[in-house]
Give the backbone structure.
Amino acid sequence: MATSTFGTKPAAAPSAGSTLGPGITVEGEISGTDPLVVQGTVKGQVRVQNAVTVDAGAVVEADVEATELRVLGALAGNCVASERLEVAAAGRLIGNVRAPRIAIAEGAAFKGQIDMDVP
Amino acid sequence: MNPSDAATIGANTTVVGALRGDVPLTVHGRIEGSVQLQALLTIEAGATVEADVEVASLTVHGTLTGNVVAADRVTLSRSARVTGSLRAKRLQIEDGARFQGKIDMDEA
Amino acid sequence: MRHHISSQHTLEGTLRGSGDLVIAGTVRGDIVLEGSVHVLAGGSVEGDVQCASLIVEGRWSGNAHLSDLFSAHEGATARGTLSTIRIEVMPGAKLQLDVDMREPAAVAATSPPRTSAPAAVAVSPPSAAPVSAPAPASPAPTTATAAPDEEEEAVEDEAAADPGAADEAARDEGPKSSRKARR
């Protein structure tokens, strides 16, 4: 049972940004200008003018726009990273990607087109 | 305001009908009917008011059934049992209070 | 697990799952969560919320169905319908709410079940058998002994909130059980 919250402050918010932990499923669109860390499931669209991390264990079925996109989990969707895209060894990325810099670690799974010609 | 002007309805008293006034009223007993008070109405623990209530302010520790219009503030303490609608400028409800009805604080 | 939606983010869509959610930004859509939803000052939620506790310091509008506490702080704006077990409102909160408070499930299970006592009265033959016959028809008496899980809680709430229905069910069964007893 929750105790009355008057006079108490919530635990300090994590450093600026959104975190959708494991156990959360989002169906819809996430947009904004802060970093985003996804550890759960997101279906829909992500348009963030900042870094997006698809963490280990996360499942993202969405088109993603970000400055930096790091994939350590599973991402299916078309991606545009205005600065860089990184797929870690445990990451799985299925979709077309556009980014000026790309790093795909050995062991990572990737299927799709890569376009590095960003003006 | 002279404290001796305040009015009280004792624990073994029942008032049936329309009650009007402009001094603070503390109810320990029972009111059935209606209350119009340009002051603070206090319904003590153990008291029961079954009435529409129009007051300056209201504090409930007991039981109230009826619609409330308060010019200023309404406070429901943790022992309050209130059924009806509440309209007030300021509202405080303590955890433990039981309330059933509409809360309407939508003023510009 | 604590989830967080930053003040600089907007989520349009539904959020479902476990854990607690702190919203500093904007959510337009429904939230179904096992834990608590906390709308910070400056945060805004437009949508239905089903969770344990909903704590509003910012803005919320929609329908809320809570299994624990609704709490509105100074500066909060809350509009819609609220079904909850507990409520607290701080001075300075602005509410426009239809409030329905339900009995806590634990109270309905452990206190002498209000619904089975009238059932005993309706089924006048003194033997125990007819009394137990109506029991399976109404959920509340049987869940008095069962550990409530989430589904049973909801059923208990409905049964507890509407003892009239259980009474009617008992009365319906009564005459049949009496006939059984006479045989």
